[in-house]
Structures are given as C-alpha cells and as structure tokens.
Specification:
The complex is a heterodimer. By secondary structure, chain A is an alpha+beta fold. Chain A is built from five helices and ten strands. In chain A, helix 2 crosses helix 5. Chain B starts with a helix and ends in a 13-residue tail after the last strand. The chains are: A alpha+beta, B mainly beta. At the A-B interface, helix 2, helix 3 and strand 8 of A face strand 2, strand 5, strand 6 and strand 9 of B.
Amino acid sequence: MRMSPGQLALLSILAAAALATGYVLHVRQQQPAAVTGATVLATPRPLPAFSLTQASGQPFTRENLRGGWHLLFFGYTHCPDVCPNTLGLLHAVSAALKQRGRPDLGIVFISVDPGRDRPEVLGPYVRYFDPGFLAATGPDEQLEKLTRALYIPYSRDSAGSDGNYEVQHSGALVLLNADAQAVAYFSPPLQLDALVAGLQQLMHR
Amino acid sequence: MMNARYLAAACLPLLLAGLGWPASVTACAGIEVTHAWVREMPPGVNVTAAYLDLVNTSDHEVMITHVSSPRFQRGEFHATRMENGNMSMEELRHVVVPAHGRFSFRPDGYHIMLFNPHKPPAAGGIVTLELACPDGRLSLKAPVRRRNFGEDGEHPHE
C-alpha cells in the first residue's frame, strides 16, 4: 500500500502525539501529586546528630523525633507577632488532625533564643498554646547543627538599652517523617485549611 | 432649652467611647479606629502586640507619630518583614494614613509592639492605647484576647 504525502504527514503527527502523551503520563507517574502550600523534597533529608534540652529538662536529640511524625517550628518567646500567631495556628492544626483521626503528629517549638528561653520559661510558654506541644532549645553550636541541615536560618540583634533584642528566624514549618527525615516545608503565609489538608496528604504516603 | 445639636455634640464622645471608638474626636481629625485588640501575653513574656485599623475619613493624610499605653512602659510601630522566608521586625518612626484610606495593623503584618507591662493584661480585660498626631492625641480602648485559632471564631487574616 502506498500513502499519499498528506496521509504520511497525518500519520507522523499522530505518532508524535502518541509519543508525547506517553511521555507526559510517564512523567506524571514519576512525580508525586502536588501538595497545596508545601514544598516537598524529592528525597527525604536525614537529620544530623544534635543535643538540645526539652522544657522538662530532659535531653532532646534526633532519637526523640523517631517513631512518629513531627512538625518543627523555630522561634522565640519574646516574639510579639509571628510566633504566637503560628503557635495558635498549630494548636488549631493539631485539633483538626485529631478530629480527622490523625492524633499522632508531634508539634515541636525550637527556641533559637537560648539566652532568654530557659527550659523553665519554655514549658509554660508552649503549654499556654497547647498542653501537647514539645519545646526545646540549646546552645547555638547545637541549634546550628539542626538549623543548617534544615536550611532554617536565624540570627539575633544585639541588646538595646533596656536589654530587649529581636531575633530573626524562618517562619517555615518542617515536616519530619517517622525516621526523623525532613520531607516537606510549609512557608508563610500559613493557612489553617491548606496546612491540615497538606499534612494529611503527606502523612498518608 | 438646650439645642438638640449641642446635646448630640455633648453625647458624641460618650457614644463613641461606648462603641470602643476614639474617646477624643478633637485630635487626629478624620481618624476612626476599628477592630482594635491586644494579644494576651503568654506566661514569662514581657512583650505583646496590639492590632487595629486606622480609617481616615478626611481629605488629607494623617500622620500618627507615636503610640503609648498607660499599661505598658512603651509602645512602638513595627512591621513584620519576610525576606527569603526569614521573618524579622522593623521599627517604623511613624505611620501615615492616606486621605480616605486606611492603615491596618494585622497579625503577621504591621503591629503595635507593647513592651514591659506594669501589670500583664489578661483576656477579657481592656487596655487603653494612645495615638499621637501632630494636632494632639487620640485615646482608645482595646479588648484583650487570647486569640487561639478556632476558639474565638475569628480568622487572623480576616
């Protein structure tokens, strides 16, 4: 059978379209579905060893983050705006996840202001927002092991005449899987509904 | 007999104070304050934030030069800035409310930072705030709220 040039051209277009469709389907299968408001790492990133202190006075290490999902937030207690907003939001997130049958997400507040946020200050502070929250801090050298591995920058101003100073910190939340590996980031502006949906989706994988 | 207009003028400040609006209407002419509230302080903390909307009903811009509260040692205007995902605060020397415009202090944005309370305000209480303009002061009362999401029924980014 002989084809006219027109038929040949049509056949080539159809073949190209079929190939392109196959390629798109292949790529879709390779990539995880997008999660609203989250940056999902292609490969979970393990945490290095670090040694902090919990609000209870107990040590807080990588081992404390194994065996369950955790969401980390870095801040400081003398923070008038972003930190209380975020911790209030996280209380609502935790309550919403419990209602949806996911009571297993541990929420951890890491203070990057160890000078003011002694363990005895941190405990009452986080319990004010949610009695289930964990809190920890430690010397900069230990904090930096964790923050550098997670790309969570922080810095502190020098104190003013009244002793007050401000701390610059990331507003991002880091989701860790049960093997203490970072799997996703949620960056501000944070929204309750999107956060709850994104966490449910990620913890389902 | 008292003219009805004078009676209304005499009652206006009381009426506005009762609504939580500026008790003084002579200074900061054209400025109305709405949605004012102060965040209750978590234990062990000596700073908090106040949030409000400044609405300018006049034909000219109004500059607010200073904020204070008899309840606190001092107050400052602050902006929460986000750069590359990093949050920091920057003090503002003053804020300007454009003619027929508004300036909003809201969570995660502009806020009034209050330092060192003489007595920490508790949720359900009232804090007096004083805003200074070039032509005088405007005093307002702001309720204190705990503001946990989903508990007081309000959304922070309303």
